[in-house]
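Q: Joint fold for the lines below.
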Amino acid sequence: MSERKERKKLLEVKNIKVEFGSKKKKFTAIDGVSFDIYEGETFGLVGESGSGKTTIGRAIIRINEVTDGEILYDGERISGNITQEMDHKVIENIQMIFQDPMASLNERAKVDYIISEGIYNLHKHKDEEDRKRMVEQALLDVGLLPEFASRFPHEFSGGQRQRIGIARALVMEPKLIIADEPISALDVSIRAQVLNLLSELQKKKGFTYLFIAHDLSIVRFISDRVAVIHKGKIVELAETEKLYEHPLHPYTRALLSAIPQPDPAIERQKTIEVYDPACHHYETDRPQWVEIEEGHYVLANQEEQETYKEMLRQT
Amino acid sequence: MNNRYTEKILEAKDVVVKFNLRGRTLTAIRGISLDLYKGESLAIVGESGSGKSVFTKTFMGLLDANGRVDSGSILYKGNDLAKYTTEKEWLTIRGKEIAMVFQDPMTSLNPLKTVGKQIRETVELHQGLKGAEAKAKTIEILNDVGITMPEIRYKQYPHEFSGGMRQRAVIAIAVACNPNILICDEPTTALDVTIQAQILKLLHKLQEKYSLTIIYITHDLGVVANVADRIAVMYAGDIIEVGLCEEVFYNAKHPYTWALLSSLPQLGVKGEPLYSIKGTPPNLFHEIHGDAFAPRNPYALEVDFEVRPPYFEVSPTHKAKTWLLDPRAPKVEPPKLIVRMLEKWKEAPEHV
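A: Joint structure:
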């Protein structure tokens, strides 16, 4: 992609660290993660459960505190202590869609309130009529009827509830949407509908997505670039097809080899690679986050960098 | 391609399951006939609400109190399970003959008991072993399901196990009953891909060692391609297509099966919307006329809305319920997406 250089960095994550617990029982969930998200792209973040992918998303919208490093939105720092004004800017511009539509909606509030909560908090509406219009528009945008505003969440199916969750995010007119496993709690046939809705909204409103998921085939379909995270460290980052065609890091290779293929002949003959962390020799030669070819980053030490370069030459 | 399994172990005939809900009757299973062969792996696929779990629960008497088998028979070893009513009768089947592995390993283990104790209970109850013998057997089973250091793991509680390990423990409990049939209800849905592959491999190994017949309930067609000998596709309480794994993947006949295959993300083309099935499944409170899929089916014929299609045989092992297979029906080609997928698959080196 030649236009890539001109693209604007919307979000910059610089060497962040997230730790939980006190000094004695410290757990480092995110350890030195850096990546940029360009305006208008869909950035996929994949990893197993417990790898820290959700924590990254939560750190960006300031739910989890960052202990080290910084996060920049539109060139301005949004991590650590920031002014209230800046905090409001974060809320306005970055919104999140949660995984489980059954658990993420307030059961006792009507859809109208659920969608308007952000508007109320930031006084985004001129008057009551203006707010109603915004809610109506948000519902229409996600393919629901404006009448639904007066109903409670329990009256909706899983797919519809996820649409309400999306409407709640987009009523704020954000630039960046963090979608944390938005479809893994949904049924196969509804997944396609929600995915299509997300890409349709992106085309219409120019959203940038951080798409967090563990389903690798869906990430491949929706993302422009993908980062693979393992135990709090991003091990590889590249444009989607590059990563799926030529994975370098052994963990990425293991993950990709395990994707189930819906074809009996291929599925039964496939060999699954197993990732053994002991295959790295990091005692003397520390791994570094390097750009091994244009736009393709990998975590590797000197020796591995040579091997990876050799692998790329052969392909 | 012929089925290498011939001995029937379970025969379901015209099973109808109804639920009473707030004074209304819901027909969850609308007359399913299915034979299960000894030693095979059968996969039941379908959307949630299609009745795949309900159908298999009738084999074990696990329907909720407001549900009942309304008509039809389920023959197992000469007994009709559909006629069983008391817990006492069901206890002769549950675990001993037919065991189940549930979807979520986080909730299907007792958090207050050690894993060893939970497996040992089943060993004592179903294999009649006691004391040190029971413990030795438990450790052997733990070993079988691939749990390393079984002696230490025996004394640990479920919260000390990871998700994959817990699912192994749940499988261990099911296997400890020494069943003939194992029903796995979405066994890998809650797990990561790498763990999923391991669990499927484990189930395959156990199937050989304990000569199990396994029913997989899943919506993941990737899992199905890996494990199934035969596939049954369910829609709105009916099996609309059944056949050998290869037959259903490479030569699907029912428009719903086409739709299901088309909505796979692997088939998606970047930048184009993913195929999605229009509309919603029918309301099972109402009686369904004709083919239940007809209102969502772009290939529906007039007759589909009026008369329920019977099974049309495609091969001795493959049949589908769609009027499209009637000799009088106009010839319909599968959708482009599927044809494209099949061509792509044929080029793959694995097919040569």
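Q: Anything notable?
A: The two ends of chain A are 19 Å apart (CA to CA). The mean pLDDT of chain A is 90.
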